[in-house]
Design goal:
Shape: elongated
Structural class: alpha+beta
Number of helices: 33
Strand content: 5-15%
Oligomer: single chain
Helix content: 40-55%
Largest sheet: 5 strands, mixed
Distance between the termini: 70 Å
Length: 880
């Protein structure tokens, strides 16, 4: 609305002042009417005089009524759309989202429609419309006086009949809120005023075109083009006479004359339209006799809204854009704004493909593992599960062995709430829904669908290059990139080690891999553990990060402190989610968003400079004029020396640590670094990979945290989320979208006290448990759960690992990963991944979304038992 329409009260006051002569005239008329009424009841007057006074009184009352109606009409004028608004609506253009390489990503339409010119619509449509709805369309100026009076007369005798012209109907379609929806004299007056204005602003051809493109046709189809596709699976230019008559016939009552649900009524109404076309000489009587007996033929198919290649990204930008447009007096849906984004359409296509392929394979893993009573690892190859999936009932054992959880799922459903609200007792509603096969099938699909989020950004500019918020936007609009908060597990550890480096600790600072008991303020003891028991040997701080050792990380956190770790993480880019200042934060217990984590790793990849994630480069109007431009400025938040040391430690993760499968399985080349993450009970899997020109991260898990991956192998981020990122990087490098020759810079010299002999000695101690562990800290006796041991590997593997690590430190670059050997139990060592996954299968519907992340207000609560990190857990007990 214009400023003129936003101030109707002031306009009304001006009109009231200008109408002073009219007010005086009305006062005189009122006095005269009063005199007439006195003459009617005057006993001194004869019968003839009283009759004349009565006639004059009625005439005066009629004149007064018309005067009041005219005055009311004048008052309503400011409350109708202005001529400038109508002219603007004539050239409405929806906003467009464009990628960095010039491809259309999304169009911001109010409704699901495609605008077509009148010349592109079958001429039968316009003929049927005019013949049926307004045969004097070309003869009036928006209002058909004769038809309006006839309609009013029929209404008075109880036969409601619309007298609106096509222009008046268009006024209602364009401005339903301003004109009103309820039948009333006010709505009719506003409709007439707006119709007169439309006729002044539009040509007759433009009125027809606008009408046909705005009228609704049910099933989320707006406009003649979407109606033609929905009901006849063809373009509006190809509509026949019968098809045109069918669609125009629906205008009298979409639901009542719905050809899908009420074919008999629709057929009858279609023939009425054909008869009107004969009456108005646009269809021959012979053709009518032939056509009226033909059956109704439909080719019905709902038309989904076009979501584009990056729907979650487009929705994220739309919310920002609406706020920007409101502040700058623009309309996202009609002003033809062109938003130039940072997204790369080629990288987005690769990301979509990688998420689909890898998540289909991982879904097969979850389906099969939870289908059987045994929790034994079946295979380290996803292909084996995909072939087995056909012979099992997905999640069969899970569903049958957890009745209490299934009942909780049912009680949380909308169907259960509706049943209870309708008066059914809770237990009866639960029993009823348990027996509803369709409901249970839909609930299983919702809860047991594995989800993922993926985002990639350029660390040098902060520009987001790819964004996948879920496996399928059509069934799950919840964004697992910017909204979902999940525990990051070991991907949070670099902030602990980075803060330690800032405090003066060195990558070679020694810690003992031993049992740790940390007293908490509430009197309990926090005891972090790893998947393998403590070796008792000394390890460099660097090794603690490379092999994701919880016991080492907890000791580093003790030296640094939670507050300094939080401050470090905030500076790096984890600046939205709430971080709890507790020791367990070292293992990633505070939920964060994937976007925050990838942004923070981007700081490491850009040599310690933080840049806020950038989504838009500039905005232009429909003529190409730049309205706003955005550049991301970097801020130094970490010294180059400390950053180089931390990046080199993270190189070790992908060279010989938990993330080495990104090289060995996916063949990702170049100078890369990264970190895996896994939370307790295999609830969340994470992997973030850094490259000098691109940082990409993925989260994998179920939307409902009570459903998890079953085996510890497939539940690790190094075996699920890593697959998504590895697949993306492999394709990106092959397509030459990622420069495999880019370097982070020279790696720092090895820390004092670090040598190949320390590595060999450490590996012997770790795998064969040689050497005597350090004494435990003085705590009360406790019973500790026995941890599984890793089977010994051969001598060649130990020496090769150590040599390769030393070479990497000396040359400052990543080297190929040495060949891995399986353990004695047939399982691969920790971090070993399956080969590249096979082709995708059909998607399953998504699970229920988590609660929204900061700043999207709803609180996200972490699981009470969650918080252990990579391949391990924690014990929290009360001190006796």
């Amino acid at each position: 609305m214009t400023e003129e329409n936003l101030k109707p009260a002031s306009r009304w006051l001006r009109l009231w002042r200008k109408a002073e002569p009219l007010r005086h005239g009305a006062a005189r008329l009122f006095r005269r009417i009063a005199g007439y009424f006195r003459g009617i009841v005057d006993p001194a007057s004869d019968r003839r005089a009283r009759t004349i006074s009565g006639v004059k009184a009625l005439a005066a009352m009629g004149a007064l009524g018309f005067a009041l109606l005219g005055a009311y009409t004048v008052v309503l004028i400011p409350f109708t759309p202005s001529i400038s608004d109508l002219r603007k609506a004539k050239v409405d253009q929806p906003g467009q989202l464009v990628s960095a390489d010039g491809k259309l990503i999304a169009t911001y339409n109010r409704l699901n429609r495609e605008w077509v010119g009148l010349d592109s619509v079958s001429p039968h449509v316009a003929r049927a419309l005019i013949a049926t709805e307004d045969h004097r369309f070309y003869d009036h100026h928006g209002v058909d006086v004769l038809r309006t009076l006839a309609g009013a007369a029929r209404t008075l005798v109880g036969k409601t009949e619309g007298g609106s012209t096509i222009t008046q109907q268009l006024a209602r379609n364009l401005y339903p809120d301003e004109i009103g929806r309820k039948r009333s004299i006010t709505r009719k007056i506003k409709e007439i005023i707006t119709a007169l204005k439309i006729e002044s602003a539009y040509t007759k051809k433009e009125i027809l075109e606008t009408y046909l493109n705005t009228v609704p046709f049910l099933y989320n189809a707006y406009g003649i083009e979407m109606a033609a596709r929905t009901y006849f699976d063809k373009s509006s230019s190809q509509l026949t006479v019968l098809e045109s008559a069918t669609l125009i016939g629906m205008l009298k009552g979409n639901s009542y004359y719905n050809p899908v649900l009420n074919p008999e009524r629709a057929l009858e109404r279609r023939n009425v339209v054909l008869s009107q076309m004969v009456k108005r000489n646009v269809l021959s009587p012979e053709s009518f006799e032939t056509l009226k007996n033909r059956r109704m033929r439909l080719d019905f198919e709902r038309q989904p809204e076009q979501v584009g290649p990056a729907p979650h990204f487009a929705e994220y930008v739309r919310k920002w854009l609406i706020d920007w447009a409101d502040r700058h007096n623009y309309n996202v849906y009609s002003d033809g704004l062109v938003v130039h984004t940072t997204l790369d359409s080629r990288m987005q296509a690769i990301a979509n493909q990688s998420v689909k392929r890898q998540m289909n394979a991982l879904q097969a893993v979850a389906d099969v593992e939870w289908a059987k009573p045994s929790d034994r690892l079946i295979s380290t190859s996803a292909g084996a599960y995909q072939s087995m999936r056909r012979g099992v009932r997905p999640f069969g054992y899970f569903w049958s062995s957890k009745p209490a959880l299934v009942d909780a799922f049912i009680r949380e459903s909308e169907a259960y709430r509706r049943a209870v609200d309708s008066g059914i007792k809770p237990e009866a509603a639960l029993a009823q829904l348990r027996k509803d096969a369709n409901f249970i099938a839909a609930l299983r699909e919702e809860k047991l669908r594995l989800q993922a989020g993926f985002v990639a950004m350029d660390p040098a500019t902060g520009q987001v290059k790819a964004w996948v918020g879920s496996r399928d936007f059509e069934t799950d609009q919840y964004d697992h990139v910017a909204r979902a908060q999940r525990q990051p597990g070991s991907t949070f550890k670099p902030f602990v080690y980075g803060a330690a480096l800032e405090q003066g600790l060195l990558p070679g600072t020694r810690f003992t891999d031993k049992d740790i008991d940390i007293a908490m303020p509430d009197g309990t003891v926090w005891s972090p553990t790893d998947l393998t028991g403590p070796s008792g040997r000394e390890m460099a701080m660097r090794e603690g990060l490379i092999y994701s050792k919880n016991t080492i990380t907890a000791q580093v956190m003790q030296q640094v402190g939670p507050k300094k770790t939080i401050a470090f993480a905030r500076r790096m880019g984890v600046d939205q989610s709430k971080l709890e200042p507790v020791p367990a934060l070292a293992l990633g217990t505070s939920p964060v968003t994937l976007l925050e984590m990838v942004s923070a790793y981007g700081t490491f990849a850009d040599n310690g400079e933080y840049r806020k994630p950038a989504f838009i480069t500039h905005i232009t109007d429909r003529k190409g004029k730049i309205l706003a431009r955005y550049d991301a400025e970097g801020e130094r938040v970490l010294s180059a020396k400390t950053n180089a040391e931390l990046v080199d430690m993270l190189r070790g993760v992908v060279n010989q640590g938990t993330g080495r499968a990104v090289k060995s399985n996916f063949g990702v080349r170049g100078d890369i670094a990264g970190k895996t993450g896994t939370t307790q009970n295999n609830t969340d899997g994470w992997f973030i990979l850094m490259h000098p020109r691109l940082v990409a991260g993925s989260w994998v898990g179920f939307s409902d945290a009570r459903v998890t991956m079953r085996s510890s192998y497939w539940g690790q981020g190094g075996h699920n989320a890593l697959n998504v990122v590895g697949d993306f990087f492999r394709q990106g490098i092959d397509a030459r979208l990622i420069d495999a020759n880019a370097k982070f810079g020279k790696a720092p010299e090895p820390s004092p006290g670090w040598s190949i002999f320390d590595t060999v000695k450490g590996k012997f101690s770790q795998w064969f448990h040689f050497g005597k562990p350090d004494a435990k800290p003085p705590v009360r006796p406790r019973v500790r759960k026995k941890e599984p041991e890793i089977a010994p590997d051969d001598m060649e593997r130990i020496i090769n690992d150590a040599r390769e690590e030393q070479k990497s430190l000396e040359r400052g670059r990543a080297e190929p990963v040495p060949k891995e050997a399986a353990g004695a139990d047939g399982k691969p060592p920790a971090g070993q991944e399956q080969p590249p996954l096979p082709s995708p299968e059909k998607d399953r519907p998504p699970a229920q979304p988590e609660k929204a992340a900061v700043p999207a207000m709803p609180e996200t609560r972490p699981r009470a038992d969650a918080g252990s990190a990579e391949a391990g857990g924690e014990t929290k007990r009360a001190v006796p």
